[in-house]
Amino acid sequence: MGNIDSLTQSLAVYSEKLSKRGEDAALLMVNDTASLAGVFDGLGGSGARSYSRAGFKSGAYLASRIAALTVRDWFKTLSENSAFGSSAPGSFDFGEGEAAELKKLLKDSLLKFKAALKEENGSRLKSSFSKELPTTMAVQVVLPPSERRKYFKANFLWAGDSRGYIFDEDGLHQITRDDNDVADPFENISADGKMTNVIYAGGNFTVHFRSVPMKKPFLSFAASDGCFGYFSSPMEFEYHFLKALAGAANFREAERRLHDCFEARAEDDFSFAGLFYYGDEPDVFRKQAENRLQKLEPLIARIRTGGDEARRAIWQEEYRKGYLSLG
Questions:
Q1: Could you tell me the residue ranges of all domains in the chain?
Q2: CA of 52: how far to CAs of 116, 120, 134, in Å?
Q3: I need a labelling partner for 258 at 20 to 30 A (CA). Which of 51, 207, 222, 272 fits?
Q4: Is residue 112 pLDDT above 60, yes or no?
Q5: What is the DSSP letter of 84?
Q6: 123 pLDDT exceeds 50?
Q7: Higher confidence at residue 310 or residue 188?
Q8: What is the pTM of this model?
């Protein structure tokens, strides 16, 4: 629970397939002037190597944690310097400069850790992998209305295929764009495209930035691909996601139901971090979710009877435009 204006609740869900070896990490931070939700998914392919100096943890495990800690410290510094707090004209308002600063900090942190690992046994590590300490990232920093901002400002920073979303009365919207050679979110589910940009030690990666003004009550969240990647389409992800949350009596039950929803399908670690901006009327979210579910149910019924052909037609003709409308 936070005290930022109109923040109703923060919520996080995390699961690992191998105990104490999970390669995902999640981050939630709330203070008087801003809120942050983020997820990080260490890449188990190029980051599979384990390091004895780090307790035999994999590079993927280490990378997601290093990135999460770096983002935590970056956000704390901005908050402690009152960067978010001033509402006077001309005050701080977050933008591309902060994304560039975060990129530098991530690169420096991973390089420093990589250098420490290379001292192991007094010699340099040799690796056949093209990327060392690789991870994805999806982070959002939400600023409340102020004298300068009429509406909430949801700022998204990402690299890789972890995603940032907004849910409002019009449905689910994917704000981020996957760094993937298959651009369409629907096609990528079956195509399993190649990642084109990830955070890694020494890498010339990109931290993307996008800002969205929000005046409606909304839920803003970040999710690793273990959350959404095992659903057959974005509309089925939205449907089951909302079913889990709308059926909960309280936020703690919502966490359990959401965990169970993902756990039933995921064949990977997963992490979710969300911020609910519904002010003094948290039941507004339930009403929005129930109204949206009523609109989705006929689509889901058509998918169940029509299979892949119906699923593709619904995505292209009825769902895709609204899903990508804020991005």
A1: 9-323
A2: 12, 8, 18
A3: 207
A4: yes
A5: T
A6: no
A7: 310
A8: 0.92
Cα distance between residue 10 and residue 226, in whole Å: 20
For 165-189, b where at least 16 C-beta lie within 10 A, e where not — what string? bbbbebbbbbbbbbbbebeebbebb
d(C-alpha 179, C-alpha 160), whole Å: 5
Residue 282 burial (C-beta neighbours within 10 Å; 0-12, 13-18, 19+): middle
> Structure tokens of 270?
């997963």
Half-sphere exposure of 131 (CA within 13 A, CB side): 22
CA distance 307 to 301: 10
Enter the tokens of residue 133: 């300490």
Return the structure tokens found at 2.
Answer: 């936070």
Q: Give the helix ranges, DSSP H, for the chain.
A: 59-80, 96-118, 185-191, 225-228, 234-246, 251-263, 283-314, 320-323
Q: 9-323, what's its fold? A: Phosphatase 2c; domain 1 (3.60.40)
- Would you mind telling me the total number of residues written for the chain in this entry? 327
pLDDT of residue 4: 52
